[in-house]
Amino acid sequence: MTVTVRFAPSPTGYLHIGNLRTALFNWLFAQRSNGRFILRFDDTDRERSRSEYSEAIVEDLAWIGIQPDRVEHQSRRIALYDAAAERLKAAGVLYPCYESAEELERRRRLRRVRGLPPIYGREALKLTEDDRRRLEAEGRRPHWRFLLPNFADDPFSPRRTEMSWNDLVRGEQSVDLSSLSDPILVREEGSYLYTLPSIVDDGDLGVTHVIRGDDHVTNTGVQIAIFQALGLAVPVFGHHNLLTTISGEGLSKRTGALSLRTLRDEGYEAMAVASLAVEVGLSGSIEAAPDLDALGERADLSAVSGALSKFDPAELDRLNRDIVHRMDYGAVAPRLAELPIPSGEAEAFWQAIRANCAKVADAALWADVVYGGIAPAEFADDDLTFVREAFELLPEEPWDGETWSVWTSGVKAATGRKGRALFMPLRRALTGLDHGPELKELLPLIGRERALARRP
């Protein structure tokens, strides 16, 4: 058996980091098992689904490093769902209902008043053919419910019926089908809700493992019953916890909260985003994985916390800094090529400044410091006199990694200054800043001509 998983986003907005969590748990699980990863677009909502979002999802996953083995669109598979619905109708487990939303709500309120659970009472099963013809003559169109197998002989006398499974994340799980309403699978206008198309696709595409958010746990008992009614193999389920914002709010594609597209545009590295998406809620500290293979070694589903996990942007900043500080020149060369850096100095420039970059884009700031024109620094009188004297002692070129030490040693001997009083005024004069990369590496890049031009 080939392990086969699927990631099934609705193309109604851009992916956010919570969606990525599900995609990565599936991708990494498949990679460890030499399995297949299917990207399935749940795009049967024709009003909200957009092709540009489908294209963006493929692009965003590729940025992370996820390449699907197969891509499917539910909108192109309607005939399969129609056939499955007809099979369920023929088996007598998909039945028509004519209640309006208002009527259903009124019945739920009455059941609550009577101390009963607010579930559907299967009143539609009592309708005769004449009743149905009369309702349809009045202009009503049926929605269709799946008859849960939670009774012996009489559907109006449900009994406790446990539907159990061994969850990859949560261990042994069980849902009592008698506590649930018969789910609606087909709307009045004939379109399908999520449940039936998803089950049909999982069966048709050979999905062996369904890994998704724990907001689907209760649905799983119902879906297992439908798998069985259709004669389809029931996959192994795993339900991971969900991500929220630091304030506890849920993430949403429609609001654009923490979308991958936004994070990428803001200069975050793909592995920083991927590491946080997976490691939040796992045991141990959150660390930046160098690649997806290393991240896969951390992605133990059985170690996922049962509680909601909060996404802290400060953690993302920290992970991104860690990655950038470790990046070698080859990884950033294409991006540095866009900056006004002499080609022969680009590698030395990156080695000098990377420890001072939270994002690769910060290199542009240091390119301005090294190769651009900086605003003159202001000095108190004693520092101004000191700096001017120090610049008189600038060594002749060529300059290398020892030039800073040679120069400052000479300045110390000539002026008697040492420590911060020696180094800080020189840094401010050369860079316009009180902080930054090691000047022994930066000074040869600045060069004698630019350095002299910065003499106050």
TrEMBL record:
Protein's UniProt keywords contain Ribosomal protein: no
Domain Aminoacyl-tRNA synthetase class I anticodon-binding: 384-454
Keywords: Aminoacyl-tRNA synthetase, ATP-binding, Cytoplasm, Ligase, Nucleotide-binding, Protein biosynthesis
Record-annotated membrane-spanning stretches: none
Domain Glutamyl/glutaminyl-tRNA synthetase class Ib catalytic per the UniProt entry, residue ranges: 3-316
Complex and partners: Monomer.
Similarity field: Belongs to the class-I aminoacyl-tRNA synthetase family. Glutamate--tRNA ligase type 1 subfamily.
Protein name: Glutamate--tRNA ligase
